[in-house]
Amino acid sequence: MKAAVLREVGKPLQIENVQINKPGPHEVLIRTAAAGLCHSDLHFMEGSYPTVLPAVLGHESAGVVEAVGSEVRTVKPGDHVITCLSAFCGHCEHCLTGHLSLCVSPETKRGQEDEPRLSAANGPMQQYLNLSSFAEQMLIHEHACVAIRKDMPLDRAALIGCSVMTGVGAAIHTSSVRPGDTVAVIGLGGVGLAAVNGAAIAGAGRIIAIDTVASKSNLAKEFGATDFIDASQTDAVKEVLEMTKGGVHHSFEAIGLSKTAEQAFMMLRRGGTANVIGMIPLGQNITLPGAAFLGEKKLQGSLMGSNRFPVDMPRLVDMYLAGKLKLDEMISQRIKLEEVNEGFADMKKGGLARSVIVFN
Q1: Which of 38, 89, 95, 103 does the annotation list as catalytic?
Q2: What is the per-residue pLDDT across 193-220, written as a single tens digit (0 to 9) for each?
Q3: Which of 61, 228, 282, 351 is the most buried (most CB within 10 A)?
Q4: Which residue, among 320, 340, 272, has the nearest Cα to 300 in the 3D structure?
């Protein structure tokens, strides 16, 4: 099968032929229909986060089940599925207490003594984030995907697999936005726009979208924002404090920088919660005034929207088909696998919401 492979940090992905194994007892073989380009992939490509190389990248995807292992009970051939990088075992403490996204059990991966899921003619090939979806096929654990209704377009379903689940889940699950709450979202890429949309679905009374690209104002308002701040022209923290007369109940940092994480905390009102969704590069530290915590302000992380994806993702599909979840507006361009490097170059320019690879 064709796949986009990262062989060296800082270098473009290479389109190569990669071998894929047959499903084990709890594994599913999927024909990839679509895969979104996520900023997290870029972090690994540029070395902000380490991963074993060479590896097939990609982790935001949807497709059709081609074959299943002998013990698989959750999906069957022909099912349309959304994948999720937070594969779960189902019986560890995290899983049994309802925190599936925190599961780190090795059971969802193949062991050292097993044949690898992926391989190359000239040596080993690593699977990335349990998925490796920049490829024509995926071989994954059954608890890394969920079946969805077949009237859902798969190019839009792919977005639910990471950015939408991460952003909407951060608002609804991690921070528990309630009707009437005030919200600020810093960074309006795919995850940030999903956080705006999630806050709107949760009933937030005021949603302030913040970005340095002024042209994203109209897009943010399509997703549910009530206000927009161009952070390239003003002090975003000062503006939020003035607009809300003291700060917001919830803030969401969706870029992955220590500076914007600090800003997210400083724009809170007393008792407010700042959520860091973005991947802050290793080595960067956050500095905050200690006295600020006396007001019971909270700073917390959010991993994949604190999801219970087998339940959450089908519900998000229903929300999209009911017109409540914005996905059409999030896709800036559809590209071929061979155009993946151009897609990441466009991402770095900052003007796009999401590029999606569409497979034939």
Answers
A1: 38
A2: 999 999 999 999 999 999 999 999 999 9
A3: 61
A4: 272
Mention every residue, 6+ apart, whose C-beta is less than 8 A from residue 151: 321
Give the residue among 57, 282, 294, 306 at the shortest CA–CA distance from 171. 306
Query: Which of 26, 59, 141, 143 does the annotation list as catalytic?
Result: 59
Q: Which of 39, 43, 143, 250 is catalytic?
A: 43
What pLDDT is stored for residue 360 in this prediction? 82
Domains in the chain (CATH in brackets) are 2-161+306-358 (3.90.180.10), 176-301 (3.40.50.720)
Q: Tell me the CA distances in angstroms from 21 to 87, 117, 145, 247, 248, one per residue in order.
A: 19, 5, 18, 53, 50
Q: One of 26, 39, 40, 103 is an active-site residue; which one?
A: 40
User: What pTM does this model have?
Assistant: 0.96
Q: Is 40 a catalytic residue?
A: yes
Q: Which residues contact 301 (CB under 8 A, 6 or more apart)?
A: 275, 276
| Catalytic site includes residue 38 | yes
Per the annotation, the verdict on 59 as an active-site residue is: yes
Q: What is the pLDDT of residues 309-351, one digit of tens each?
A: 999 999 999 999 999 999 999 999 999 999 999 999 999 988 7
